[in-house]
Amino acid sequence: MTMTTTMRRHYADGPFGQIHFQAASSGRPLVLLHQAVMHSDQFSNVFGPLADRGLRPIAIDMPGFGMSDPTDGPPTIADLAEAVAPVLDALGVDRAVVGGHHTGSLVSTEFALRHPDRVDAVVLGGAIVMPEAQRLALRDEFAEREKNFAALPGAQHMVELALTREHFAAGTIGPERISDYVVQAMMARGAYWYGHHAAFSYDHAAAIAALARPALILSNTGDMIHDAALEAHRMRPDFAFAAIDGGGIDIVDQEPVRWADAIADYVATLAD
After folding, report:
1. Helix (H, G, I), strand (E, B) or coil at 85
2. Does residue 272 lie within any of the structural domains?
3. 20 to 30 Å CA-CA from 259: which of 34, 46, 189, 226?
4. Number of structural domains, the chain?
5. What pLDDT score does 224 carry?
6. pLDDT at 3 over 60
7. Residue 211 maps to which CATH number?
8. What is the pLDDT, as a whole number, of residue 4?
9. What is the residue-wise DSSP string for 186-252?
10. Which residues constitute the domain of residue 19?
């Protein structure tokens, strides 16, 4: 039975303004970085299972998402990674396991490249390893669609977003959580298209090739980018690998205990 986990909300000063985050008070530090266009509440259903396994979730709203101040213009993944160190400093944490889901996995990789002395290991929850032409084509496709995202009468833009998320969830996520996904997306403080533009502009393959910290490549077989995770594992067979059966882009909610256990099992193999 999952215990109740008390997560306290905090702010830290970062290079672009205030950074909002929430953190538990004890356990081995585990930074969690969300996908675009969500925020730290994406991980609300795994806080308890992670704490049950002795981990201390530290979930950050990256710049321009949730309640964190945005960058002045379109951010890069490197910009988003600048949110992590100020949070660790605010908590008095020297080193942590740093991980994320989709866009968050890219940010965790970049943070580990820039600050390896502060990273015990990296959790790549959805690597984006694909040919450059394909990656940039996706960037342009997302940008063209998301730049047109705007408020419509009767909140129809929210309805359309809810329908899109229901499509991806394929009946596995209830209406309350789908509504929460819409609320999280509506809290984006930068332009709506910034997150995916940053993600698909980033050469995750090159970053993973250069990564010198231990890592877990975490995927699920129903994820739309599962093949990219398999390619990342072929590139770096020295990294641990775990794949949960089924699910989709919402695996954190679809299989919260299995997702948390995959991370906790991996962290248990690391030195203290």
Report:
1. helix
2. no
3. 189
4. 1
5. 94
6. no
7. 3.40.50.1820
8. 54
9. HT--S-TTHHHHHHHHS-HHHHHHH--S-EEEEEETTSTTHHHHHHHHHH-TTSEEEEESS--TTHH
10. 8-267
